[in-house]
Specification:
single chain; about 500 residues; mainly alpha; Sodium/glucose cotransporter; 21 helices
């Protein structure tokens, strides 16, 4: 116990000291929110990866989908690496950096407002961010409850308050740069931790081949009659597995806290290196999490899904590990949770300040007032998310849990298509963006409130979220074809930023 507590104290001390050290980089809005747009490849790639993979993935999704799909759940992690990381960097990274700098936008709603010269569009996007990021933020605490109870036997409320306060301290002090440096350290912990845990679990089951053979013998007539389904290539339910891959992979393309990482990247070289680093990180962390969860059926004797839910799966797999490894797992999950929490609260507070309060509520808001507002809102958002998490833990309110489940689908369903098309296509209309916003957020809200009325395939929030994202990619071009065209001068000016000439070394680009 002394060793585990010491690990926690050292971990928290390092996080806070980095926040205090980075205060010099957080003296204006650009520095606080984007790190001065000068963040290198390693910090950006790890910030992207640690914001992507939170405790929700390690404890919740890995346990749930590993139990449902067996070893085939590893496809989710590989999809996250290829689609959610590598392709996101290739398709979005460079163009996002160029066009957001052209418009001098620091948030996704501010980008929409500038790209379509529409204040209502900016405010509408801000409202969607505010409504759906807060419950998503609260969900980050969920994965910690059982692990802390297993490792320290302390009340979950204490864990929530401790994590919220310490995250708030380093984010408020150092802003994005403190978050990025801490994300790098937390990412290293996640990389090492997941490898160590997988090795220990496989070793306890006789090694990889022995564990896979045991998994092939597991049967569950309620799920499938296919023999060896949980050790098969595509698992017992390939169609729903595809829905999970789409939601958790393509979804990152439309999440404000993820896309905002590209706003801050330093240069071309950083994008190229960051693509490789981010993809490797996702393969190890996300692929590792789902690979680990795929063996959960070997621990079925100690798991009661009906009584304790899917969040009990991963803790049950880990409870007999050595104290050192359990301490490492707790630090791993804390790292995953705190990195994502810091990213979300910066995205929420900067959006509300820059896109709603500035120029709309407070007409003349200088840099100092904006910075103060962002810091105050960070405190408020962390407090709200902590209260929601405590209420959910201590009561049987299911509405909150449902809202957390649809938040990812609502955000990505609203923003992915209009943001992607706006970077590549000149004919995107303002009306098509509004339709995407309304369809994405509205469809997922209705799915939450009237789930039983939806077709069986779409009653799952996962499948519903994947559907809104794919539908948005069709809706935006179709609506744009039949609605008022965007202002030609504004569009040409925006796309001209891609064609600015810069001299580069021959080692970077060959002669014609």
């Amino acid at each position: 116990m002394i060793f585990k507590v010491t690990m926690l104290v050292v971990f928290f001390a390092v996080m806070v000291l980095i926040g205090l050290y980075c205060r010099k980089n957080a003296t204006d809005v650009n520095g606080f929110v984007l790190g001065g747009r000068s963040v290198g490849p390693w910090l950006t790639a790890f910030a992207y990866g640690t914001s992507y993979f939170s405790a929700v993935v390690f404890v919740g999704y890995a346990g749930q989908f590993g139990w449902k799909y067996g070893i085939a759940s590893t496809w989710i992690g590989l999809g996250n690496a290829v689609i959610g990381s590598m392709l996101a960097w290739v398709v979005l990274g460079r163009r996002t950096r160029i066009m957001t700098q052209h418009f001098n936008s620091a948030t996704m709603p501010e980008f929409f407002g500038a790209r379509f010269s529409s204040t209502p569009l900016k405010i509408g996007a801000s409202i969607i961010v505010f409504i759906f990021l807060i419950p998503y933020t609260a969900s980050l605490y969920n994965g910690l409850s059982r692990l802390f109870g297993m490792a320290f036997n302390i009340d979950y409320t204490v864990c929530i308050v401790l994590m919220a306060v310490l995250t708030g301290v380093y984010v408020i002090a150092g802003g994005y740069m403190a978050t990025a440096i801490n994300d790098f350290i937390q990412g290293l912990i996640m990389l090492f931790g997941i490898c160590a845990v997988i090795s220990a679990v496989l070793k306890s089951n006789g090694g990889f081949i022995a564990a896979l053979n045991s998994l092939a013998l597991v049967e569950d007539a309620a799920v499938t009659s296919q023999p060896g389904a949980f050790a098969s290539f595509f698992g017992p339910d390939p169609l729903n597995l595809l829905g999970v891959v789409i939601l958790t992979s393509l979804g990152t393309w439309g999440l404000p806290q993820m896309v905002q990482k590209f706003y801050a990247i330093k240069n071309e070289s950083a994008i190229q290196k960051g693509t490789v680093i981010s993809t490797f990180f996702a393969i190890v962390v996300s692929g590792g999490c789902y690979f680990l969860g795929g063996f959960s059926r070997l621990y079925h004797a100690g798991i009661d899904i009906e009584a304790n839910g899917y969040d009990s799966v991963i803790p049950a797999m880990l409870e007999n590990l050595s104290p050192l490894l359990i301490g490492l797992v707790v630090i791993l999950v804390l790292s995953a949770s705190m990195s994502t929490l810091s990213s979300l609260v910066i995205a929420s507070s900067s959006t509300l300040t820059i896109d709603v309060i500035k120029d709309n509520i407070i007409k003349k808001m200088d840099e100092k007032k904006q910075l103060l507002s962002i810091r105050i809102l960070i405190v408020i958002f962390i407090a709200i998310s902590a209260v929601i998490a405590i209420i959910q833990y201590k009561s049987s309110i299911t509405f909150i849990a449902q809202l957390m489940g649809v938040s990812w689908g609502a955000l990505a369903g609203s923003f992915l298509a209009p943001f992607l098309y706006s970077l590549y296509w000149k004919k995107v209309s303002k009306a098509s963006v509004w339709v995407s916003f309304i369809f994405g957020s509205g469809f997922m809200t209705l799915n939450m409130l009237m789930r039983g009325s939806f077709p069986a395939l779409l009653q799952s929030p996962i499948n519903a979220g994947a559907f809104t994202m794919v539908a948005g990619l069709i809706i935006v071009p179709v609506v744009s074809a039949f609605t008022k065209k965007p202002d030609a001068k504004l569009v040409e000016d925006a796309f001209a930023s891609y064609n600015e000439t810069h001299e580069v070394k021959r080692s970077t680009a060959l002669e014609n």
